[in-house]
Design a protein that fits this description.
Elements lengths: L1 H18 L9 E3 L4 E4 L8 E2 L4 E2 L21 E8 L4 E7 L3 H13 L3 E8 L2 E8 L4 E8 L4 E8 L43 E7 L3 E7 L3 H13 L5 E7 L2 E7 L5 E7 L2 E7 L3
Antiparallel strand pairs: 1-2, 2-5, 3-4, 5-6, 6-10, 7-8, 7-13, 8-9, 9-10, 11-12, 12-16, 13-14, 14-15, 15-16
Length: 277
């Protein structure tokens, strides 16, 4: 368990050194190096035990509400608080009751106006990143299943030397003069219960074992709906979903060991369906 804590803390320090952007008065702190300080609840309890090069977790820290504005206070145990001395950034490591509580917290943050620019779901990681227009702050959250830890970093640049906030832009497609006739017909039999994805099929490779297709003129909302359809069809046994602005990918397995791999980039999409292994 202690070894897990070492990995977590080192990861946080590296992430802060590279990605974060102020400094503030610490309630209590123990120096980690020249650039980062780790807050604990009691100055007399060290966060680092140099005798055995191990780390001790200090439980029941208070959520630093004044420095995490406008974020709501999470219903979770605070494990660590770290702040770079030279940047307006703060990182908090927490222990939520479960992944559902983490996802609910992200929804609360999104409701404040944080526009998501990254989303990763699946495997042992859940991650969300979003920016807030009003104060040019960026919120990043990473949940790791292997030790149930959640790392939240809030950074802001009120000078706007770095532009964190970028609103989602809908890609408009003028299809009035576009021939939407598919180059190959939708392989209904090989796609089993999957409905046809709206768009134009440009090319494909179809067999009874697998289906690969490339499409154009696919709308983002239609593609996201198609991912939900895949989940409803049972392809949620193992999933990995990523969203980076105008790029979305989804991989889902079902209990029959079939796999659907969906990718979308601006207006183009690919479908790779493995029916039989």
């Amino acid at each position: 368990m202690k070894r897990n804590k070492i990995i977590i803390l080192i990861t946080i320090v590296l992430a802060i050194s590279i990605l974060s952007t102020g400094c503030g008065e610490k309630v209590s702190e123990q120096p980690l190096d020249n650039n980062v300080k780790v807050s604990t609840k009691d100055d007399n309890i060290p966060i680092i035990d140099k005798d055995d090069d191990d780390y001790e977790a200090i439980s029941n820290l208070d959520w630093p509400a004044d420095k995490m504005k406008p974020l709501p206070t999470p219903e979770a145990e605070v494990l660590y608080i770290t702040e770079p001395e030279y940047e307006d950034s703060i990182t908090v490591v927490l222990n939520f009751p479960n992944l559902k509580a983490v996802q609910d917290y992200v929804e609360q943050v999104k409701a404040l106006g944080y526009v998501g620019h990254t989303l990763i779901e699946g495997g042992e990681i859940f991650s969300f990143g979003g920016a807030f227009k009003d104060d040019n702050s960026v919120f990043d959250l990473i949940y790791q299943e292997y030790d149930d830890s959640t790392t939240i970093t809030l950074s802001r640049d009120t000078s706007y030397s770095v532009q964190y906030f970028e609103p989602d832009e809908d890609i408009e497609m003028d299809l009035a003069n576009v021939d939407m006739t598919d180059e190959i017909p939708w392989p209904k039999e090989q796609m089993d219960k999957f409905p046809e994805l709206e768009g134009k099929i440009k090319r494909g490779n179809i067999s009874n074992e697998s289906v690969y297709m490339e499409l154009d003129y696919v709308k983002k909302d239609d593609f996201l709906s198609y991912i939900e359809t895949a989940k409803q069809l049972g392809f949620d046994f193992i999933t990995n979903q990523k969203k980076f602005k105008n790029t979305i990918s989804f991989i889902g397995d079902n209990d029959k060991e079939q796999t659907i791999n969906l990718n979308w980039d601006s207006t183009k999409a690919t479908i790779n369906y493995i029916r039989k292994k």
